[in-house]
Amino acid sequence: MTNSCPPPRPAKGNDRYDAVSYTPYPSNISRARRRVARLAVDWGHPGVAGDAALLASELCTNALLHGCLRDRLFRVETSLTGTALRVAVTDPRGERLPHPGAPVADDQFGRGLLIVRTLANRWAVEKLTVGKTVWAELDMRGDPDA
What we know:
29% of the residues lie in helices and 25% in strands. By secondary structure, the chain is of the alpha+beta class. The longest helix is centred in the middle third of the chain and has 19 residues.
């Protein structure tokens, strides 16, 4: 964990970066999910678009349920390097860190981070001066459609 928000990395060569801030309303979860999926396709990796969209959806849902404050935005950053596609969601509640649970069969909630752990090759939480960022990465193989 870090305690400050690093500035966006400048794109190098084929690296790509996108960031959008959203109001804390449920309708913006699907907007963020569609944007991340479209970026993966536009950036030449349609094979991971579904997984990237699901990661965005789970991270945004967690931010909305556990990390957002009224009238404070949450941010979704999507970046692509030669080795990974990263989805990062930043919210204003740094004191509420995520922790994967062990839901029972009839629990309605509590599986989001389990899905993130299953899909992502890596994920972590970065504590910021104000808020936190939860990110997940998908490894990019040599084949853009992998």
